[in-house]
Amino acid sequence: MKTKEMVFAALFAAFIGVLGMIPPIPLGFIPVPITAQTLGVMLVGCFLGKKTGALSLILFIVLVALGLPLLSGGRGGLSVFVSPTVGYFLSWPVAVFCIGYMTEKMWPTLRTWKLIVINIVFGVLLISLIGAPVMAIITDTSVWAGLVGATAFLPGDCIKAIIAAIIAMQLKALSPIEDKVNNS
């Protein structure tokens, strides 16, 4: 891994931590709040690609496990790994890897609308399909109820998917993916 990729991985882990400073919006009917951090997750996948992006999110998870209050609402430490949000939180590296994989695959013909679709499928739907059932198990409710409750996130997450795609396309020339494509 090149120094530039390591710096980007650390920078984007910090960026997701900064997005965690934006206060969460609690929903009364589901124990998982609306946060800005999924915007960062999608942007990491679009901009860094599968390997560097996944490394960035693994670094972020390690920092949270060590107790840094990087999650929305100033949460951190091992307690978050038994909270209702753990499925969403631990799905982030998987989502980033999938977003990065598809982005790299389509890089030469990449368009904003393609990134939006990638973000919605892997950054919105995949995170919900992993996070909602885990939340349901932890809260002792039905998986179906968890999935239905998670639909509250879809409108905002789709907006975040669009924003992440637009930003990533504007920064495409700076992306480490661009270096990989040009050096191949």
Automatic annotation (TrEMBL):
It comes from Paenibacillus antarcticus. This is Biotin transporter. GO terms for cellular component: plasma membrane. GO terms for molecular function: biotin transmembrane transporter activity. InterPro entries: BioY. The chain crosses the membrane at residues 30-48, 55-74, 86-103, 115-138, 144-168. It is found in: Cell membrane. It holds the Pfam family BioY. It is a multi-pass membrane protein. Belongs to the BioY family. Keywords: Cell membrane, Membrane, Transmembrane, Transmembrane helix, Transport.
